Request: fold
Amino acid sequence: MNLSTEAAPHFRTTNTTRKIMIDVLISLIPAVIASTWIFGFRALFIMLFSMVFAEMLDFSIVRFIRKQKDHIPDFSASVTGLLLGMNLSLAVNWWQIMLGVVIAIILAKQVFGGLGQNFFNPALVGRAFMLISFPTAMTTWYVPFYYQNPDIVTSASVLGIISEEGMSTVLQNYTYWDMFIGTIPGSIGEVSALALIIGFIYLVIKGRIKLMIPVSYIGTVLIFSSVFYMVDPTKFGTPLFHLLAGGLILGALFMATDMVTSPMTKMGQLVFGVGAGILTMIIRFFGSYPEGVSFSILIMNAFVPLIDDWLKPKIYGTTKGEIKHA
Reply:
């Protein structure tokens, strides 16, 4: 029998990658249901198509290119595909979804060696590629329940409205309750903060989530937006608005907390969350693109090795100088 030794540390646990990924998929079910209710079965098709194709592609690469004949899917690719699908607009075509999945699974994951070796969140890499390659489709937002009212199909997102017309125009069209339950234009799976929070609570109960990252990320956004709101409330919007608008909840709770592409230590996670929060608001307030969640997380992903090296715990019995020269 051939035995392989993985990297340290070695300890016995009942947790497996498969169990963790299944829990993540379960936690996303409320958002999938809410998205289907709000945007119709086309939304469900996009999410499921992205998820299934991602799993098939990942399985094919590992089984036939990497020659791991005993490979059994761990559903990490399904999580990537589903999260990518939730970050898309209803206007994307099936072949655009396939290209996004190819970039996410091959370029962002398998090129680096597969699960656990990637530096960037694969779903966000796929989304960034699609946003750059297909900007029209990726920024065409369908209004909630458009399938019930064919006279009104597309509209600007709430972040687009505030950047062009100000906070007063946003509140003339949508309430905070609309933003909380998800009856606003936006990416398929990001609109319902309520559904995402329900799923997040499940992950917290199961012990699958790093609380420091979402708390520091969201807290930084609230502090940053509060300061600018006091400067000009008509232009920058309320802190609650920036909490509920766009992909902040989805990004902070499910994307930034990715175990592979986030720091290992609590202090590192704090730095990661604060950095992502600051970058998100800088892009929202001063960038040409009204949303900054995806790019902020990807930028902070690039800093994770440095953060881990900078904030690694001191080995008992050594000095700081000895650690630097180790």
Q: What stands out?
A: Residues 144 and 185 are 6 Å apart (CA to CA). The longest helix spans residues 41-65.
